[in-house]
Design goal:
The protein is an alpha+beta fold. The protein contains 4 helices and 5 strands; from the N terminus they run αββαβαββα. The protein binds tetrahydrodeoxyuridine.
C-alpha cells in the first residue's frame, strides 16, 4: 500500500484531469492515467487514437513513455480512469493486456494499479495479480 490515502486521491484526481486531454474521437472513450515514480514524481497520460485504429496508444503507455524518456525506471503506482465522453462518472477501466506486459517490464509484482469508478468505488490491484506470469525471454 502507498503510505497515504491522500496520495491515492491525488493520483486519481490527476488521472481524471488527464482524461480531459484524451484524443479519442473514434471510440469516444477517454482514459487518463497518473503514474507515480519511485522518487515521488507524477507523470500523466491519456489515450491518443488514430484513424488507423491499431496505431493509437493507451493512456498507460503514454504516461510510462513520458516518465521513462525523462530518465525514470522505477515506479510505485498508477491510477487509471476511463470515461464515456459526455458522462461525468468514471467507469471501471482495468489496463489492457498490452499495457500489463509493458508495465511488467519496469515494475515489480508489488506495483499498484488504482482504479476508480462510481459503481465499484476505488479498487487496488498488485501488478503481480494482474500479470501472474509475464513473457520474458531472459528468464
Ligand atoms: N484504452 C486505454 O487507454 N487504456 C486501457 O487500458 C484500455 C483502453 C483506450 C484505447 C482506446 O483509445 C480506447 O481506450 C478504447 O479502447
Amino acid at each position: 500500500m502507498l503510505n497515504s490515502g491522500l496520495m491515492y486521491k491525488e493520483l486519481i484526481q490527476k488521472a481524471e484531469e488527464a482524461s480531459h486531454k484524451a484524443y479519442c474521437k473514434y471510440s469516444r472513450f477517454a482514459v487518463g492515467t497518473a503514474l507515480l515514480t519511485d522518487s515521488g514524481e507524477i507523470y500523466t497520460g491519456c489515450n491518443i487514437e488514430n484513424s488507423s485504429y491499431p496505431v493509437g496508444i493507451c493512456a498507460e503507455r503514454v504516461a510510462f513513455g513520458k516518465a521513462i524518456s525523462e530518465g525514470h525506471k522505477k515506479f510505485r503506482a498508477i491510477a487509471v480512469c476511463g470515461f464515456f465522453l459526455g458522462e461525468l462518472d468514471p467507469v471501471f477501466c482495468p489496463p489492457c493486456g498490452m499495457c500489463r506486459q509493458f508495465m511488467s517490464e519496469f515494475c515489480e509484482d508489488d506495483f499498484e494499479v488504482i482504479l476508480s469508478d462510481k459503481m465499484k468505488g476505488i479498487r487496488y490491484y498488485k501488478l503481480g495479480t494482474l500479470v501472474p506470469v509475464r513473457f520474458d525471454f531472459q528468464i
